[in-house]
Amino acid sequence: MTATARQPPQAPAAFRPMTAGLRLVRLYLLSRRVPAACCLLAALGCVLCSALHWRWNIAGGPAAQLAIPMIVETCAAAIVAVTSYGPFGDTERAASWRLPWLRLSIVLVLAAAAFGLLSAGASGGYLPGGVLALLRNLVGMTGIGLLSAAALGGAFGWVGPMGYLFIIEGALADGWTTPWVWASRPAGDVGGAVCATAVFAAGLAAIAALGARGAGHRVAAE
Amino acid sequence: MNVELTDLRRRFGRTEAVAGVSLQAGPGVFGLLGPNGAGKTSLLRMMATVLAPSSGRMELLGRDPGDHADRREIRRRLGYLPQSLGYYPGFTVSEFVEYFALLKDMPPAKVPGAVASAVERCGLSDRARSKLRSLSGGMLRRVGIAQAIVNDPELLLLDEPTAGLDPEQRMAFRALLREIGGRATVVVSTHLVEDVGAACTEVTLMNQGKIVFHGTPAQLTARGEGSGAAGDAPLERGYSAVLSEARA
Q1: Residue of B51, B86, B108 with shortest CB distance to A91
Q2: In CA terms, which of A13, A153, B27, B111 is 20 to 30 Å from A209?
Q3: What is residue A158's three-state secondary structure?
Q4: Interface contact B98-A12, CB threshold 8 A
């Protein structure tokens, strides 16, 4: 470390405003492991494609045909939620007012990517409930994932969607009709769609405003 | 004054981590000393705008951090190194420092030069392209210092900055602190009293959330003279004497 040398050894090229914005987004995406998340989402699209293409002879066949897409949707929602984990903690919080906007944008883009990749994977076979049910389930479960990331920490964003999956299994077995278990409702059900959207909006607001919970710290607003 | 704190308090459940701190600081290097759990980190986190006070008044760089627009401006002009630095291991040293320069809203044209300068001032030019996962603990600490100074902050908050630095690096770091303290307010929380003696113009000693001493390092040293307090160096004896009095 030196107290006197204030000039860099060579003058690097200056950024243009647009370049600076793009570089910030790129570094933010890398730090949240978004490229890896996109690869996993693409892999889930392939899994869904395979699952719908083959005939399953486990758990009675039709049950597997329903359960596998739901498991894939849950995994996709968990992946989107887990990317809310940031490694920088207080250093990042003390640096910027842009974080809520970055978080919001990334969640929306990743959720859209998840929907796109899963619907592409489902395009070759019969998906129970169709693309509309896929969208509703994915949106709702992503909201649950974001809420659990805000409450428990980004690394635990998967806990909510996985817990919800077990609840749905129980709901399907016991014939629950509440719209809060939207995945067990028909694709065109308005109540289920409204509940899923409300949960997504709540999760989005929580993660944008507060960020994922960090190592036991509650923080000032950003 | 860059820092004006009035009766600042912060509670965590039943524990009052900061119990009515009042402090004023202009340009210079301020040492924040105290035993573990004295409230130093909580005080620094409040000054870094990442932790809201439970009560009291705080003004940083002439602005109120409770106000959204003011907080945004404060953060542009603030440098902060927390006690435990979080990092993404896949970033290079330059990428890490650049990320914080961009987050701090620096003018885009100045970012590459500021990044190179901060990396160079922390003695990391030869490791600028190294991934953070390949660095030692002391080097990571210097990377943390580089991100804190990249925007030439007017208020620099450093929590245990010399942890993991070797003696040569610590001496260089103290020189850097003195240089920055000539024009900015630098608040350094540390357990190493020799750092305070060598680099700080003023020292504040905290115990159980309260300030129990505020003065120059020479005044703190004087408190230990003839007191019979424990310590290997005069400043350490002053530190021990003040703490013993506060606990009595």
Answers
A1: B86
A2: B111
A3: coil
A4: no
Q: Which residues of B touch A219 (CB under 8 A)?
A: 50-52
What is the total residue count of chain A?
222
Q: Give me the residues of B, 7-36, that contact A with CB < 8 A.
A: none
A190 Cβ contact list (under 8 Å, min separation 6): none
**Could you read off the pLDDT of B159-204 as tens digits, one per residue?**
999 888 888 888 888 899 999 999 999 999 998 888 888 889 999 9
| Contact of B48 with B55, CB cutoff 8 Å | no
Q: CB-CB: which of A9, A14, A98 is closest to B103?
A: A98
For chain A, the domains span 29-210
Domains observed in chain B: 1-77+154-210 (3.40.50.300), 84-152 (no CATH)
Residue type, A201: A
How far apart, in whole angstroms, are the C-alpha atoms of residue A108 and residue A106? 5
Amino acid at site B233: A
For residues A116 and B151, what is the distance between their CA atoms, to the nearest angstrom? 40
Among A9, A89, A95, beta carbon nearest to B103:
A95
Q: Please state the separation of Cα A78 from the chain's center in Å.
A: 6
Residue of B10, B102, B127 to mutate, interface with A, max A Cβ within 10 Å: B102
Write out chain A residues lying below 8 Å of B113, CB-based.
8, 11-12, 14
In our burial notation (b when 16+ CB lie closer than 10 A, e otherwise), range B184-207 reads bbbbbbbebbbbbbbbbbbbbbbb
| Side chain identity, residue A40 | L
- Give the position of tokens 């003058």: A11
Give tens-digit pLDDT for B10-63: 999 989 999 999 999 999 999 999 999 999 999 999 999 999 999 999 999 999
